[in-house]
Amino acid sequence: MVFHCLKNIVSYDTIYCILNDTVGGDMRFSKTIKFIRETLGLNQGEFASKIGVERLAIIRWENDKVVPSKIVQTRLYEIVKKNNISVYNSLIENIPKYKLENNILTLYHSSKAGIQGSIKPISRNHCDFGSGFYMGNQVQQPLTLVCTNPKSMLYVVELDLTDLKIVEVEPSIDWALLIGYYRGKLEGIKETKLYEKYKKMLFNCDVVVGSIADDRIFYVLDRFFEGTITDKGLIESLSALQLGVQYVAITQKACKQIKIVYKEELSEFMKLYLEDISEQNRQYGITTANEICRTYRREGRYFDEILKEGK
Questions:
Q1: What is d(CA 17, CA 60) in angstroms, rounded to the nearest whole number?
Q2: Into how many domains does the chain fold?
Q3: Which of 6, 46, 139, 293 could cross-link with 42 by S-S, CB 3.0 to 4.6 Å?
Q4: pLDDT tens sequence across 33-69
């Protein structure tokens, strides 16, 4: 989002922009607005009346001159939701795509308030694989992670894998118990071989690669750690949900090989849209977990049984 300093403002349309919009366009958002209008089958004047603005505003938005105010973005989202219009592809159209080229990965990272200073292997407590700089191969997951915050930022980064020690954790019971270790779920079996296994699994590792515990699987994992779903049910859930992959730089060496190539503050419209996606994903995870729990309730081991075997 670009902001320009305005001098000698005299024209009506520029004054209108200052009062109602953010000066400096967003080409992706301008395409989204045009897509919404055309999907509804409205001309610019009709669309302006529907939103409660002047036709001039629609022209400026679609021509990438200004970005609508938060109030107007909220109105636009209400229209999208009411008419069941899918705008996700238009929202992410200009964001660089995930790829691996010349040992360099293009990945996604989100932040609640933006990255301050250099990239470091720090994060909130009880993350999946401990402290680190978290990146994913799918853009939606990091977006939904921070969409409720007022200053949410999306970053596209390049990770140079050269000379980095990488540990890949397959979507298995090891993946779940490693997450359990970092979330403090294994504290009751300290000093056991099982505890030591997961404590040491990432020693001398620069980057850990594993499935993302996103909105869909979060509920399933909770059910597993609470003892209401077996390891068999958990593994079946991982297979059914087809999770994305996260790359976590857990050393400063790895963080120094990360370069930011794109960044964007999430618009109000995008945050509202993503909040709904996040809730839909959560509900899907709950439905999946409940179905699998019923199907595999007599197969596999429960979490407390695994802990007892590890003592």
A1: 9
A2: 2
A3: 46
A4: 999 999 999 999 999 999 999 999 999 999 888 889 8
